[in-house]
Amino acid sequence: MALKHATPMLDELEKGPWPSFVSDVKRMAPKSAMCEDWLGVMELSYREKEGHWKHGGIVGVLGYGGGIIGRYCDRPDLFPAIAHFHTVRVNQPASKYYTTEVLRKLCDLWEPRGSGLTNMHGSTGDIVLLGTTTDNLEPLFYELTHEMGMDLGGSGSNLRTPEGCLGKSRCEWSCIDTQDLIYDLTMEYQDALHRPMFPYKFKFKASGCPCDCVAAIARSDCSIIGTWRDKIRIDQEAVRAYVGGELVPHAGAGGTEKRAFDINAEVIDLCPTKCMEWDGKNLKIWDEDCTRCMHCIRVMPRALRPGLDTGATILVGAKAPILEGAQMSSVVIPFMKMEPPYGEFKEFVEKVWDWWMENGKNRERLGELIQRLSLREFLKACDLTPDARMVNTPRFNPYIFYDPAEVPGGWEHDAVAFRQRHQA
């Protein structure tokens, strides 16, 4: 079936080695006028080098201030089927576990109510339903909640949909139950999720271990990273098996074949704090110097495991804007036990929100407010004591200044002791 709109520029995007979104939309076009006109407006945008979407009008569903992003086309004369093209965000299940039955029901619900196009998933994690009209919003919302038991996600100046990694359901390294935590936070903060009340957006993301598979440290206003505060568990026999070529290390270009493994070159020398030593028979780790980077555990998973006294490191202030560049989050609580009902964590969160809502400017993220008023003021508001672990190089950090003479032992003393220990 021939398309209504010629798309020579979009066609070029189908010629590369990778799957193309253009092909996906073309498959939908024969049964969706919205998809046909969407192809037309995209071709026009490519040709004129100008976007033809506008974000205007307040659209939503009764009782909610978020979850629907209003989209309109500024050329309804050429593309009437997408005069309205609103986006619906749906709160994804924890860790994005679905049954095929649920996915089929979601698609069956969406196709007659919208364009049929979906995005699995948005950067916050939501199921994104792309393109519907204002008169379809309430019926769609009713069917979504009453027939599927699902809810809208966050949009606007509110709590965005909390997101977490697979956690203990699939990962042997997970130090916290990310699924339970994310579900608990989602249910606890429903008002903040559905009714805009903040200066700008706020995101929780939880990773079960320092590998940070959901990139929380780069993308969330509050990052919850599973960690441990006792010693890394070591199986010395397995370490020797890796060195002897009996086990396959997860490093280098060796693939899945057994090979000679240089533990010094591939593990010891790559440790950021040089807290490890191999004497030819046993691996020694000075855990007090370990920064939990996980490199050694990733390379030798059958020999090394996280400790048993587990909890989370709490960081704040990340964002990943396109124009201004990324801002990574900063450690504010090096270790917190993270167990239901998460009372200590929620108490911290509510102090953060109170300070941010009182001092934040319109469209100012938490990290930007901390930059403007200082980490010192943030810590005071949250009743937190400054700690050297909150910063990377304390004497060079613009937020907090440490005088070596005021630190027990002094930084120079610690550095000398460190070098002497590793030279011995």
UniProtKB/TrEMBL annotation:
It holds the Pfam family NIR_SIR. Keywords: 4Fe-4S, Iron, Iron-sulfur, Metal-binding. Residues 155-383 form the Nitrite/sulphite reductase 4Fe-4S domain. The keyword Nucleotide-binding does not apply. One of its GO terms (molecular function) is dissimilatory sulfite reductase (NADH) activity. It comes from the Bacteria. The keyword 4Fe-4S applies. This is Sulfite reductase, dissimilatory-type subunit alpha.
